[in-house]
Specification:
It is built from 10 helices and 16 strands. It has 325 residues and is an alpha/beta fold. Strands 3, 5, 6, 7, 8, 15 and 16 form a 7-stranded mixed β-sheet that branches. It is globular and about 60 Å long. It binds NADP nicotinamide-adenine-dinucleotide phosphate.
């Protein structure tokens, strides 16, 4: 039998139920994957609360997993039964012991990347790959701002940006998180729950301000983040941890110095298989050479996914979190 965390209606963590569901069989183009570890991501919270809408209810949430291919459907050539694989992609359905998924969304894992590390890093790490290398290609010597710098995406982004030669300013919710971010390449952690991050950015850059801000906090940081940019700077809003950014007057971009604004998603940047594979390979490379260390700082049994969501939403997690079936 197969067990999964399902939601029947949107709501708080208590909406997630541990249930027995049928084991699916792979259709044409699909693979059946037995998960060894599942990644916890903020997007799982959005699907649970209804900020993002699942195709139907009840549904199994979750976007990321790592495990072994058990069977493949007709026409599948990219993976075979027995392959170690990982993914970070729609459709949702990762909070389960086994699932089917389009085989061309799977990436084969190198032998020296564990299932746990893979489940912890695929979604957050490929996100960092496209943000730092494609949305705004960060160059050596540039100074950048990363919000939630001690989080899952945050710790990977600090390390990778440092590896690219950037100076990293990062916001964090506590002194302990500031230390953690610093230990992962954040040159200037700012505790934004007590410090004015825009004033600190001005001080750190000697008034020059920044070419780019990576903002995943959303509503609470958006307007002030715009004020951290130099003219022609790029505002990258890629998440909503504090809520979605409300409707916005584009004239503000003109007033603040001909700014650029983008709201990117990993889905777009990995829509083509060649982009997915290239993104995963770039991530494997920085991890295997030690430039980026994946910090799995929380582990929960899959059946206790509600506890994991509570910790994530209460800002009690740092680095990455995995759910273990
Ligand atoms: N667009 C994309 O392609 C994409 C892909 C992956 C992730 N994301 C986004 O990136 C962000 C980070 O994802 P993650 O999974 O790595 O999570 P995370 O950063 O580990 O956790 C969220 C962090 O946001 C900060 N935060 C600030 N205000 C908050 C609030 N009101 N409630 C809760 N947290 C708040 C907290 O850090 P502090 O205590 O330090 O403030 C918290 O630890 C999320 O917004 C996610 O949606 C976007």
């Amino acid at each position: 039998m197969n067990h999964a965390i399902r939601i029947h209606e949107h709501g708080g963590p208590e909406a997630m139920k541990w249930e027995e569901i049928p084991t699916p069989s792979p259709g044409p183009g699909e693979a059946l994957v037995r998960h060894a570890a599942i990644g916890l991501n903020y997007i799982d919270v959005y699907f649970r609360t209804g900020l993002y809408k699942p195709p139907s209810l009840p549904c199994v949430i979750g976007m990321e997993g790592a495990g072994t291919v058990e069977a493949v459907g007709e026409g599948v050539t990219v993976v075979r039964p027995g392959d170690r694989v990982a993914y970070a992609t729609a459709p949702i359905g990762a909070y389960a012991e086994v699932r089917t998924i389009k085989a061309d969304r799977l990436v084969k894992l190198p032998d020296d990347i564990s299932f746990e590390v893979a489940a912890a890093m695929m979604l957050q790490g490929m996100t960092v790959e496209y943000l730092l290398r494609r949305t705004f290609p960060v160059k050596p010597g540039q100074t950048i701002l990363v919000h939630a710098a001690a989080g899952g995406v945050g710790l990977i982004m600090c390390q990778w940006a440092k590896h690219l030669g950037a100076t990293v300013i990062g916001t964090v919710g506590s002194d302990a998180k500031a230390e953690l971010a610093r230990a992962h390449g954040c040159d200037h952690p700012i505790v934004y729950t007590r410090e004015d991050f825009q004033a600190r950015v001005k001080e750190i850059t000697g008034g020059k301000m920044l070419p780019v801000v990576y903002d995943s906090v959303g509503r609470e940081t958006f307007m002030k983040s715009l004020d951290c940019l130099a003219p022609l700077g790029m505002m990258v809003v890629f998440g909503n941890a504090s809520g979605a950014v409300p409707p916005f007057d584009v004239g503000i971009l003109a007033a603040k110095g001909s700014l650029f604004l983008t709201r990117p998603t990993l889905a777009t940047y990995t829509a083509k298989r060649e982009d997915l594979v290239a993104s995963a390979e770039a991530l494997f490379e920085v991890v295997r050479k030690g430039a980026v260390k994946i910090e799995v700082n929380q582990r929960f049994p899959l059946r206790d996914a509600a506890e994991a969501h509570r910790a994530l939403e209460a800002r009690r997690t740092t680095g990455s979190t995995v759910l273990l079936p």
